[in-house]
Amino acid sequence: MTERIAFQLQIAPAMVDEYVARHTPVWPEMLAEIAASGRRNYSLFLGEGGRLFGYYETDDDEAARTYLAASPVAARWEAAMAEFFVGLVGRADHAATPLVEVFNLHDQLTASGA
InterPro entries under this entry (predicted)? Predict the structure, then answer.
């Protein structure tokens, strides 16, 4: 079963432009590691004041987290990105605030038979 994962982080407002620049594009080897971990449909959205919202899908989030935790590429990426986050202890990929899904159109349409 596909897990939908959403999370929130805070980027230092003065560093938003540099954060965006570092994602344009992300290192090819990091993109490959994200895909190899089993994460897909991965997106980041930037809100006002540096509020960052992320979303991805995976069949096994614990396995994806374990894979990335052991990846030297992901460790280098997370170390390079650490300076951007406000109030974060540890790696962003492990310490992001998870969000609870309260609505999904597909799931509700499927359940209703519509």
Answer: Dimeric_a/b-barrel (IPR011008), Rham/fucose_mutarotase (IPR008000)
In DSSP notation, 60-91 reads: -HHHHHHHHHT-HHHHHHHHHHGGGBSS--S-
Residues 5-29 have pLDDT tens digits of 999 999 999 999 999 999 999 999 9
Catalytic positions: 23
Give the pLDDT of residue 91: 85
Number of domains the chain contains: 1
CATH number (domain holding residue 84): 3.30.70.100
Determine if the pTM surpasses 0.85. Answer: yes
CA terminus-to-terminus distance, the chain: 21
Within 10 Å of residue 31's Cβ, how many Cβ atoms?
13
